[in-house]
C-alpha cells in the first residue's frame, strides 16, 4: 500500500467515542466521519449529543454518565443496535478534577475524578473487548491520557494520578490483547487550546493571585514551541493510531504536546 493510503483509516470503521459531544472528543468524531467512519458518541451532555447527531448523519449517540455502570451498559446496547459491532474504542471522557493542595482536596472530589477518568475507562474497555475481538482488521483502543500522565502536576494530584494510571492500563492491555489482534495505546495531549484549558488557567491564576494573562504566559513558557496544541492535532494523532500506518504501534504513550518539559 502507498504511504498516503496507509495513513487513512479504512472507510466504514465502527467507532465509539466517550465524551464525544464536545471538545477533543468532538474533533475526533468529525475527523473519523471525514474518513467515512460510522461513529457513536456518548456524553453526559444530552443536548450536545442530540445536536451532533442531527448535524452529522454518520453519528449516533447516547446520553450517558460514563461513571455509571448502568449507563455504560445502555451505551453498548445502542452500539450493537446502531453499529452492529465495533472496530475502534476511543476512551476520551475525562474531567479536570479539583485544583488544590492534597490537604485541601475534598475526598468526594477525589473519588469523582477517579470514577470518571479511570474507573469508567475500565468499564468501557471490558465491554468493548468482546466486540473488538470480532473486528475484521483487528481492534483498536485509545486511552486519552495527558502530559500530566508523564509529568508530575502539583495541585492537580487526582487528575495526574488518573492520567498516569491510564498509561499503565493501556500498556498492560496491549500485552493482554495483542494475541487477539487488538492494539492499545494512550495519547498524551499537552496544553490544548480551548475552553477547558481556559478554565484550568483561570483556576490556577486565582489560586496563585495572578491575572489570567500572567498565568497563560507561564503555561506557554513551559512549551518549547511556545504554542498550545489544537483539538484537530490530537484528533489527527488518533486517526494515525487507528490507520494501517499505526498497525505496528501498540503499548505506547504518544505525546502530542509541542514538547512540554515541566508543568
Ligand atoms: P471537555 O471538558 O472540553 O470535554 C469533555 C467531554 O466529556 C464533554 O463533552 C463532557 O460533557 C463529557 N463528559 C464529562 N464528564 C462526563 C461523564 N461523567 N460522562 C460522560 N461524558 C462526560 O474536555 P477536553 O478538553 O475535550 O478533554 C477530553 C480528554 O482529553 C479528557 O480526558 C482530558 O483529560 C484530556 N486532555 C485534555 C487536555 C486539554 O488541555 N484540554 C489536555 C490533556 C488531556
Automatic annotation (TrEMBL):
Molecular function in Gene Ontology: oxidoreductase activity
CDD domains: SDR_c
One Pfam family recorded for the sequence: adh_short_C2
The organism's place on the tree of life at top rank: Bacteria
Entry annotated with the keyword Repeat: no
Keywords, comma-separated and alphabetical: Oxidoreductase
Family membership: Belongs to the short-chain dehydrogenases/reductases (SDR) family.
Protein name per UniProt: Short chain dehydrogenase
Organism: Caballeronia telluris
Amino acid at each position: 500500500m502507498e504511504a498516503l493510503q496507509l495513513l487513512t483509516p479504512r472507510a466504514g470503521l465502527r467507532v465509539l467515542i466517550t465524551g464525544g459531544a464536545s471538545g477533543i472528543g468532538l474533533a475526533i468524531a468529525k475527523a473519523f466521519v471525514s474518513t467515512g467512519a460510522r461513529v457513536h458518541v456518548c456524553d453526559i451532555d444530552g443536548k450536545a449529543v442530540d445536536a451532533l447527531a442531527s448535524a452529522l448523519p454518520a453519528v449516533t449517540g447516547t446520553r450517558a454518565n460514563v461513571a455509571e455502570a448502568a449507563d455504560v451498559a445502555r451505551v453498548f446496547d445502542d452500539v450493537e443496535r446502531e453499529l452492529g459491532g465495533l472496530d475502534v474504542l476511543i476512551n476520551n471522557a475525562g474531567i479536570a478534577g479539583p485544583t488544590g493542595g492534597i490537604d485541601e482536596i475534598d475526598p468526594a472530589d477525589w473519588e469523582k475524578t477517579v470514577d470518571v477518568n479511570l474507573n469508567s475507562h475500565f468499564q468501557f474497555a471490558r465491554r468493548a473487548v468482546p466486540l473488538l475481538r470480532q473486528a475484521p482488521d483487528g481492534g483498536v483502543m485509545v486511552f486519552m491520557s495527558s502530559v500530566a500522565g508523564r509529568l508530575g502536576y502539583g495541585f492537580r494530584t487526582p487528575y495526574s494520578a488518573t492520567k498516569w494510571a491510564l498509561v499503565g492500563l493501556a500498556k498492560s492491555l496491549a500485552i493482554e490483547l495483542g494475541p487477539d489482534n487488538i492494539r492499545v495505546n494512550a495519547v498524551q495531549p499537552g496544553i490544548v487550546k480551548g475552553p477547558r484549558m481556559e478554565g484550568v488557567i483561570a483556576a490556577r491564576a486565582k489560586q496563585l493571585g495572578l491575572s489570567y494573562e500572567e498565568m497563560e504566559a507561564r503555561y506557554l513558557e513551559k512549551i518549547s514551541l511556545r504554542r498550545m496544541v489544537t483539538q484537530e492535532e490530537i484528533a489527527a494523532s488518533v486517526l494515525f493510531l487507528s490507520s494501517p500506518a499505526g498497525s505496528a504501534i501498540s503499548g505506547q504513550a504518544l505525546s502530542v504536546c509541542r514538547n512540554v518539559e515541566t508543568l
